[in-house]
Amino acid sequence: MATLNRNFTDELRARLSIVDVVGRRVPLVKKGQNYWGCCPFHNEKTPSFSVNEEKGFYHCFGCGEHGDIISFTMKVNNMDFRAAIQELANQAGVKMPDYKPRDPRVVQREESLFDICEKAAQTYVEKLFTPDGAHALEYIKQRGFTDDMIKKYRIGYAPRNNIIANKYADSKHLIEAGLCRRGEYGMYDFFRDKLMFPIFNPKGNVVAFSGRSLDGSEPKYINTTDTDIFHKRRTVFGFNFARDAIHRANRTIVVEGQIDAIKMQCGGFPETVAPLGTALTEDHISLLCKSNRNITFCFDGDNAGQKAAARACSIIMPFARDTSDIKFAFVTGGKDPDEILKSQGQDAMRKIIDDAVPLVDFLWNLTNASFVVSTPGGRSQAEKFLKKEIDKITDPDFKSEIEKEYNARKFNSWHKWKRTDSAVQIKLPDIDTITKNTLVYIVNTFPELGERYMDFLGTLNIDFDGNAADLNLDLTAAEKYIVSLKIQRHLEKLNTQKQNLMTQLLSGDEGVRNQISQIDEDIKKYQQKLDTLISM
Q: Judging by beta carbons within 10 Å of its beta carbon (0-12, 13-18, 19+), is residue 280 exposed, middle or buried?
């Protein structure tokens, strides 16, 4: 019987979070490391259905049902295997391949690639401790690497000669593994005179290498090109070492480079990982979110670090949930985490991580720094930018709360000002406490009303950042309240003007009589509007 290519089912498991798949059918609440809900496969009132995002399985302690995203989709939708795969492929946004047996030759080639990468790693480790690798060993020691660290991360040295091409000349997979290339005079090593960092897949197999220059030449790092067993855009450096620590710490720290990741892991932050010689991708974030959605990005404070943080913010928005704790930390002063740990110690680095800025504040600060919000055009651009980023959020309830938060901030920071009427200087009575609290509640609950009536509200000199009790008003009643108050305030203003003009008339100034008549007409008109509004 034909079966689906296992690579594709593995890709679905990698791309799709089991919490998202199950959450489409079962309301889930996070408790501890797992998510819980009522089992869809038997009737129950007390949740006994557990979902583990990191391991990718669900288990019901009531009826014993157990499985992954594929078995869940089959059972809950009463589908066969092929239909379930098609459903999941649609969710993941990928095209489902044809059903076919996995080619044994492909399996064998992958095993051969694993094997040659493992042999190369052993060779590089051996060369680090020979006279040829003395300068590489000295460099890594100066960077603060101990013998235990070198052993754990299997750091090695690729000599100047073609050691891999010569030692493993009988292998047919040197080029496929990215270890060698073919030139005019035969096979030659891709990595030469490099400090070598093996790259592991999540299972701990060596799949590729990252080589660092030792003579100051650029690029500083070169990585294995993509192969059948290695895809740079889907590989997170240090993840195989950090998985358990991420689970224990209930968060992931993401830094910019592999040396920073290693020094952080060994310096008290074992939950640290890094992208591999490329900017963060959706595949990186997807992999990390399957382990934990609490992520702290820790980048250098320079322009490159700020740009990397902005990119990370944009990429992670679709993965954000109301249970996520996403933050951004920056190492300033031209330093990186390695230097902070070396010069100031673990406590200084922990303070940087603890002081990280939450996602909602980072995006707000980024928007204000990127656009001139003091001008209408700048605010318009900023509005569009914020909307584009917020629209990426897939959790509707969380998205709604984020929109309300930013609407309140926009009103209070971008649009609120004190306005003085230069034509008529009239001091209106102060707002009483009940009216003030009502308006604070309305603006905080319905920011769109604050935007709509900001000209009027700005004249009241009220601090809308305060808190007010829940008044249980709907949108219609809230808007009705603001409009009626606006009319009342205008009537007060007209009556004050009329009183002043009457004083002038009594003093013999007949020229104000027409102005008084016009004000009487305005008072009558606005009083009718108020009466109509109240009677509605």
A: buried
Cα 384 to Cα 378: distance, rounded to the nearest angstrom: 10
**What letter would DSSP give residue 2?**
-
Is residue 296 a contact partner of residue 353, using CB atoms and an 8 Å limit?
yes
Q: Which CATH superfamily is domain 104-230 in?
A: DNA primase, catalytic core, N-terminal domain (3.90.980.10)
**Strands of 190-239, DSSP E:** 194-200, 206-213, 221-223, 236-237
Residues 6+ apart with CB under 8 A from 315: 280, 281, 282, 285
User: Distance between CA 66 and CA 59 in Å, rounded?
Assistant: 4
Q: Tell me the CATH number for domain 234-365.
A: 3.40.1360.10
Question: Over the range 92-128, which residues count as b (16 or more CB within 10 Å of their CB) and which as e?
Answer: beeebeeeeeeeeeeeebbebbbebbebbbebbbebb
How far are the Cα atoms of 97, 140, 200, 207 from residue 7, in angstroms, in the given order? Answer: 10, 37, 18, 16
Q: How far, in Å, are 95, 159, 184, 191 from residue 213 at the CA level?
A: 40, 12, 24, 10
Assess whether pLDDT exceeds 60 at residue 333: yes
What is the per-residue pLDDT for 99? 56
- Which residues have C-beta within 8 Å of that of residue 260, sequence separation ≥ 6? 272, 274, 336, 337, 338
Q: Which of 439, 433, 441 is nearest to 470 (CA)?
A: 441
Segment 197-218 mean pLDDT: 90
CATH number of 6-92: 3.90.580.10
CA atoms of 508 and 361, how far apart (whole Å): 62
Alpha-carbon distance of 154 to 241, in angstroms, equals 12
Q: What is the DSSP letter of 344?
A: T
Q: What is the DSSP letter of 414?
A: I
User: What are the beta bridge partners of residue 58?
Assistant: 51, 67
CATH 3.90.980.10 domain locations along the chain: 104-230
| Structure-token pair, residue 26 | 């079962």
> CA dist 433 to 437, 439, 488, 534, Å?
6, 10, 17, 22
Please tell me the least confidently modeled range out of 309-313, 450-454, 496-500. 450-454
- pLDDT tens digit sequence for 272-324: 999 876 678 888 998 888 778 899 999 988 888 888 899 999 999 998 988 88
